[in-house]
Write a structure and sequence with these properties.
With 66 residues, the chain is mainly α. It has helices at residues 9-14, 25-38, 53-65.
Length: 66
């Protein structure tokens, strides 16, 4: 997408809005993926199965760091 320069706010407001090709669904999907990465991770309460006792002991510390 090219950069456009304007001499005044009126000229900027009069310019047509440039949109990409397509219906915008791809842009919506990318936006949702970006928000998922930015959102804090919350883990549901419940039963969790661990492979070892050490892994179970380290989990609360790891979750609090995230």
């Amino acid at each position: 997408m090219a950069v456009e320069k304007y001499r005044s706010a009126e000229e900027m407001n009069a310019a047509p809005v440039r949109t990409g090709r397509g219906d915008g669904f791809d842009r919506f999907i990318r936006h949702c993926a970006r928000l998922r990465l930015l959102a804090p991770k919350k883990y549901a309460r419940g039963v969790v199965k661990f492979k070892s006792f050490e892994e179970a002991q380290a989990t609360p510390a790891r979750i609090s760091e995230d």
